[in-house]
Amino acid sequence: MAVSTAYKLSLANRPRRLRRTEAIRALVRETRLTPDCFIYPLFVCDGEGVRRAVSSMPGVFQLSVDEAVAEAAAARAEGVPGVILFGLPSSKDEVGSLAFDPEAPVQEAVRALKREVPDLLVMTDVCLCEYTSHGHCGIVDGEEILNDATVAHLAQAALSHAAAGADFVAPSDMMDGRVAAIRRVLDDGGFDQVGIMSYAAKYCSGFYGPFREAADSTPQFGDRRTHQMDPANVDEALREVEIDIQEGADIIMVKPAVPYLDVLSKVKERFGRPTAAYHVSGEYAMIKAAAERGWIDEPRVMMETLTSIRRAGADIIITYYAREAARLL
Ligand code: PBG
User: Fold this and answer.
1) Could you confirm whether 202 is annotated as catalytic?
2) Residue 77 maps to a domain
3) CA of 281 to the centre of ligand 1 (A)
4) How many distinct structural domains can be found in the chain?
């Protein structure tokens, strides 16, 4: 059958007019991704010249302090403004003592980064799970994770990061009252200019699997359901965010990102605060794995994913893709 090219509709609206050329599409684009919004996670370990690949996260490494400095400097040169540090201590114990040791990898890395890459924004993850022998985020009594005793330790860890020179501390433990406790200890210690980015709505998620390999922080018994949030809840997320803001959080975070874009969008709309989303290890690993099989176009899916997080309301995106995305932008 011949196609009629002469047939014309009379239409008031032709949305396709705004999609005709790249120049027009760029003109009406609503969401812009820039490297300014990226924070790049780094895993820091002891030693020198160590660059150990994390098998479930292609492109991610456990780095000794010197290598972390090189990696951060390269990221900075590509336009990534900041990093968030996770530590791999040389030993672990019941209470995670090395979390607040001034000579532990994170504290050393903060000092080195501030010295070598002065314009880099340095954030630190504050949690005990990488430091405890049982892999839990806090002090345990039998199978129970104690809230208030844990908070006291977390505040000391945050203080040690601030003393090393961190710009922001980021508690990721989901204990009640930790933002207030950290704010107080920082202020008392003379660090009123050190900010808090709280993992405010952090869900108990299967998407953290690869991170636990990277950070060696898999719980040896039980799980994190008594402190991290139930994936089914959104009103509770708004409540958690509200509490953290009242306690003094400067930036609030939703984590993971893509499975929780509805939560992110509501948090941004409701509170209008600087809002971060963490595109977590499992989200990254899934894209990498599918790309390795040739099933998806990785750069395209990476950009679409990061754009969707931004569109949903994130001002800040914490992502293992920070360098790769910055290079493309
Ligand atoms: C520490 C922490 C975790 C992540 C960030 N901080 C792991 C967890 O809660 O088990 C996950 C990050 C990722 O998956 O990329 N509590």
Assistant:
1) yes
2) yes
3) 8
4) 1
